[in-house]
Specification:
about 375 residues, alpha+beta, six-stranded antiparallel sheet
């Protein structure tokens, strides 16, 4: 028995119980070449003084694979389609990574769970931009929380950051279609060298009793996103003495981006955007940039503008036409992270124009976020 085998066992037993529910069970660990190499029990601890503390009573297995309590299959949210009965594989087009949903739970706050997805997508983008599509180290904890929602992904050592990008994209597209609810899932790859189950995870709700005003996460890239501030719509030239509204950030401020030669400026603030719409647009744009980085185009020049629209949110990023001031996909990845953090924090979900600059070169790109 090695630690690598033990790590695979924990993924396997979790995936099994996510699919069939959590009950007492006896198990054996078998290698095809050598036979049984270990065994164990998952049982309810009832105290060391009990004569029966080594006994277990296993609950009956469901008659059909993926059977779930009818109470957990929710009616569709407004404008959504009825949740498909588990086990359900998504997406249903030709993609390298597939998610199998094994159970659903209560509905989630859309903005809170989308914030978790954006944080995960930006973490992936940041890593791939610097290191490429590397394997995720076994000791990396993939866990994001915001408000009342959480996202947890358990991974096997062969899982890469590109796989995590596919998982986040699949979760978002599934829930955008069927509704934002708690869900248990596992995911697999059809890659010839890394085929099979890559990991498991859950989209869940957090106990309101343990929430506080600080968003926490064990992950190195986490957004701290406030609720939309409907009072932040006052134009910059408004007189603050005549009302109690909050003025937008100073449009003359140059905002350097960490660990780079890039900076951002934001101007022409306008209407507040619906947070869930802007988060969805961010995810779509982040996924597009991540795809280009995975294709090895980090240092390639952007040749045309990118635009993403989701409901009332429209995002547009354009490279400058001057050839000596090139906007590359790698630089856009860095800028996008800065734009995300600004608009979700100090920018308070405001529509605005922005400039991407590079010290020594000046403006290399610009764009806007607007309500449509």
């Amino acid at each position: 028995m090695t630690y690598g085998i033990l790590a695979d066992f924990f993924i396997g037993i979790e995936t099994f119980q996510l699919s069939y529910n959590y009950f007492e069970v006896h198990f054996e660990i078998i290698l095809q070449a050598t036979g049984i190499i270990g065994s164990g029990d998952i049982s309810r601890f009832i105290g060391s003084t009990s004569a029966n503390n080594n006994s277990i009573t296993a609950a009956p297995l469901p008659e059909t694979e993926g059977t779930i309590s009818p109470a957990l299959i929710l009616p569709p949210a407004a404008g959504k389609i009825q949740l498909p009965a588990p086990p359900f594989i998504w997406p249903q087009n030709d993609t390298p990574v597939k998610i199998t949903f094994t159970a659903y739970g209560i509905r989630l706050n859309e903005t809170d769970i989308l914030t978790c997805y954006v944080a995960a997508a930006n973490y992936v983008l940041q890593t791939i931009q610097v290191h490429g599509d590397i394997q995720i180290a076994p000791n990396v904890i993939l866990h994001w929380t915001h408000g009342t929602a959480s996202l947890t992904v358990q991974h096997r050592p062969r899982m890469r950051f590109g796989d995590l990008s596919d998982v986040v994209a699949a979760l978002e597209s599934f829930q955008s279609r069927y509704g934002f609810t708690e869900a248990a899932f596992y995911f697999s790859s059809d890659d010839d060298q890394r085929g099979g189950i890559l990991g498991a995870g859950s989209v869940g709700s957090r106990n309101a009793e343990v929430l506080n005003s600080t968003t926490t996460s064990s992950n190195p890239w986490m957004l701290s996103i406030p609720k939309a501030n409907a009072t932040a719509t006052v134009p910059p030239n408004s007189d603050p003495t005549t009302n109690d509204m909050t003025l937008p950030p100073d449009p003359t401020t140059i905002r350097p981006l960490p660990d780079s030669r890039l900076y951002l400026t934001f101007t022409h603030y306008g209407r507040v955007l619906p947070p869930e719409d802007l988060l969805q647009a961010w995810l779509l744009l982040t996924q597009r940039v991540t795809t280009e980085l995975l294709r090895g185009k980090r240092d390639d020049t952007m040749l045309e503008a990118l635009d993403v629209k989701y409901r009332h949110a429209l995002m547009v990023v354009s490279p400058t036409e001057e050839t000596e001031k090139m906007m590359t996909w790698g630089k856009l990845a860095v800028a996008l992270q800065g734009i995300t953090k600004f608009l979700s924090g100090e920018g308070a979900w405001l529509s605005c124009d922005f400039i991407v600059g590079e010290y020594g070169r000046g403006m290399i790109g610009n764009g806007f976020v607007m309500y449509v």
